[in-house]
Design brief:
This protein is about 75% helix and about 0% strand. It is mostly helical. It has one domain. It is globular.
């Protein structure tokens, strides 16, 4: 491939990313409105509705709290962590709860919105954001709960908490690319959903949610975006490390994101015109 050809593909990819950003900003009100409707439909079968969406991750955290505080009384802090072990663990669990809800469910985004895609001019590139927005309210609430638990357990607020929005933004970026990529793959083959279900447990165990990846062949783990995002929350609460201080981890995350984005771009260009018919 010639240098001119490579430069042309790179320029096209950059223009496509700019289009993603422009479309999502332009249609943000419509996206949020549709996501709110989804959230209501998900919980309209019970009287308390949205309450249960918040209670599920909260009960998950409480389960681990009692298991650690009562069942593992002698559990010590993770080496180098400046917070109780439970807060260290909860930081990873909050990330996993949000991400895991879209690992599989996000792959059905296009099929779930097929009427919207086929009969309106709603941009394809904003559809994945609807799935993310339908989960993001609970995500923000669990982050606030995590902060409250940290304060209740004696963790003092620090200037490092200010970088929380950076890791939240990174998490949304990763999930957007993941949802778009897997949704496109799912249009090509319905087996992709079953495949993701099969490997979801591997994502969990290889993401360092329950154990400290440092000193455990961590170089391999740093190429797992979920591991990096969980570690980012722990840098906020436990390790007091700035996002730019771990340049190697940030670089690895960026490399994986570029690869996933390039794959997604190729899939999108292949299916863009035929997608409504395939749905």
């Amino acid at each position: 491939m010639t240098a001119a050809g490579t430069d042309g593909r790179t320029e096209t990819l950059i223009r496509w990313i700019c289009k993603i950003i422009a479309d999502n900003i332009r249609y943000l009100p419509q996206t949020v409105a549709i996501a709110k409707g989804d959230l209501k439909r998900q919980h309209n079968s019970s009287d308390l509705g949205f309450f249960w969406a918040v209670m599920k991750p909260l009960m998950y955290l409480l389960m681990f709290y009692f298991a650690i505080s009562l069942g593992f009384k002698n559990a010590k802090n993770i080496d180098g962590a400046q917070c109780p072990y439970f807060i260290w663990l909860a930081a990873g669990i909050v990330q996993w709860q949000f991400i895991s809800g879209l690992l599989v469910g996000g792959a059905n985004s296009f099929y779930r919105r097929r009427m919207l895609i086929k009969h309106t001019k709603f941009p394809l590139l904003t559809v994945p954001m609807i799935s993310i927005c339908s989960k993001i309210k609970v995500y923000f609430i669990t982050i606030l709960i995590l902060m409250a638990l940290a304060l209740a357990m004696g963790v003092k607020p620090s200037i490092y908490w200010l970088q929380m929005p950076i890791y939240v933004a990174f998490t949304i970026m990763f999930l957007y690319v993941w949802v778009l990529m897997t949704s496109l793959m799912n249009v090509m083959s319905s087996d992709i959903v079953e495949f993701i279900k099969t490997i979801r447990s591997a994502f969990f165990w290889l993401s360092g949610i329950l154990f400290n990846v440092k000193g455990r062949g961590s170089r391999v783990f740093t190429y797992n975006p979920i591991c990096y995002l969980a570690q980012g929350f722990r840098n906020v609460f436990a390790y007091h490390v700035w996002v730019w201080d771990e340049r190697r981890l940030l670089f690895n995350f960026a490399v994986v994101m570029v690869i996933l984005t390039a794959i997604t771009f190729l899939l999108y260009k292949r299916l863009e015109k035929r997608l409504p018919e395939m749905l």
